[in-house]
């Protein structure tokens, strides 16, 4: 299939300097602060974003290379199909995080609940809207009963370089 | 900044053949069926996905070209900063939809609540997990009081080619 090329629109900064010890989801990163510096040419595209309490960040897992079709994720001891996990090593290594938006000054966004490594290239920002982004009558397969572990669990080096 | 290149992992099929008349969000596409055909080389990566009732599809808005920094979205009559909207014409035209997963047979996923145009290149599949993908104490800025319109609103041609 044809390839698709994207150019980052900014950079995400956080206290997580390596792939080890990163909270594995925003729910495990409560209160951890970071920032997003958007390229100045997109300044006008940030208008009205400040009205939203939460935003969806799409980014490239720049510290991940390669992938396996089956992986042992942080929250389980057995292997699962890669697409049934949120592991960062993927055919197209795109990450999603719903983070809290604290403030915007110029092209810098202060954010909270940051489970993203420092220096991550940002691909897109979307407003988080529950009516669009959530669902009802949900089943979560192998993750059933395991997600609260993500509150404490930090990454080890398995998906790093 | 350095460019990032992705190769689609599959194709999304839906009844929406053009950019006009597409439901603007999954919440407005209730019951609309579609399918995802994943490249056979990723078959093993689909293991255990069927336990999830909902999945997050990341895809490339292949019918969108170019973008404006301020846009008049389908749900409002005034212009807003692009990143405060979900308009498909974006610097990196990546779309996200939370859809219902009905079944998986081989590399074909039957899905429901499909707000995606037919033939859309698929970039990634992630399990939808409320603890990871949702937030609390939410404010939705200019969209306040407008999201229920998305139940009926269909796209017109403004973000098409």
Give the tally of β-strands of chain A.
Answer: 9
CATH architecture of chain A, please? Beta Barrel
Q: Which regions of chain A are unreliable across 5 or more consecutive residues at pLDDT < 50?
A: none
Mind describing the biggest β-sheet of chain A? 6 strands, antiparallel, barrel
What is the ordering of alpha helices and beta strands of chain A? EEEEEEEEEH
CATH homologous superfamily placement of chain A: YaeB-like
CATH topology of chain A: Elongation Factor Tu (Ef-tu), domain 3
Largest interface: A-B, 72 and 71 residues
Structural class based on helices, strands and sheet pairing of chain A: mainly beta
Instruction: Give, in spatial order, the strands making up the sheet with the most strands of chain A.
Output: 2-3-8-7-4-9
Radius of gyration from the alpha-carbon trace of chain A, in angstroms = 16 Å
| Whole-number count of domains of chain A | 1
What's the CATH class of chain A, please?
Mainly Beta
Q: What general outline of chain A do the C-alpha atoms trace?
A: globular
Which percent range fits the helix content of chain A? Answer: under 10%
- Indicate the proportion of strand residues of chain A: 25-35%
Oligomer: homodimer
Q: How much is the average pLDDT of chain A? A: 90
| End-to-end separation of chain A | 27 Å
How many DSSP H or I helices of chain A? Answer: 1
